[in-house]
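chain below, 106 aa
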Amino acid sequence: QGEATMIVLEDILNAIEDKKCEDVVAINTEGRNPFADYIIIGSASNERQLEAVAQALEDLLFRKENIDIRRDGKPESGWIVIEAENFIIHILTKEKREEFKLEEIA
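prediction:
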């Protein structure tokens, strides 16, 4: 993995943690997933925090890193996914994370 990828990964993790997400994990899927080198998962306490984290990631990735992003999901659903180059980022409420157990299938 390139140095640029690792720098962006660190920036993503910092942005998520700055918004007080819990249980943040970054799973290296390089060579196992044709869509992303990393799947990042974090838990938000509520819908407002979910939106704040998603907005912070959009600001970071699009404005600072100049990376095209695709966002799916709404805070009311309890799950927002952001796709950005080598990264797929899942921010979920704790309840949705327990329900879907993404770490087990990543």
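Residues 39 and 105 are 11 Å apart (CA to CA). The two ends are 18 Å apart (CA to CA).
thats it, cya
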